[in-house]
Design a protein that fits this description.
By secondary structure, this protein is mostly loops. Helices cover about 10% and strands about 10% of the residues. This is GcrA cell cycle regulator.
């Protein structure tokens, strides 16, 4: 069954600024409270975002929006 979803019901997410490249750290040296999103190719010299994270998450707010697809109103499962 198709559902009609009005564009006004689709809420656009607030803009989140990309973290500074100066925060990037080698993945092997990243701590517990930094974003683990890998920048570039995942290899033995991988570099992760390094931005601070909240609530013990693995990614900062900017990269979380890339990793997870937001839910859309009116979508049946």
């Amino acid at each position: 069954m198709n559902q009609l979803v009005r564009m006004s019901h689709i809420v656009t997410a607030d803009a989140v600024e990309e973290p500074s490249p100066s925060l990037r750290v080698p993945f092997a040296q990243s701590g517990a409270f930094v974003c683990k999103f890998i920048i570039g190719e995942p290899n033995d010299r991988a570099v992760c975002c390094g931005a601070p994270v909240q609530d013990g998450k693995s990614w900062c707010a900017f990269h979380r929006r890339i990793v997870f697809e937001p839910t859309r109103p009116g979508r049946l499962r």
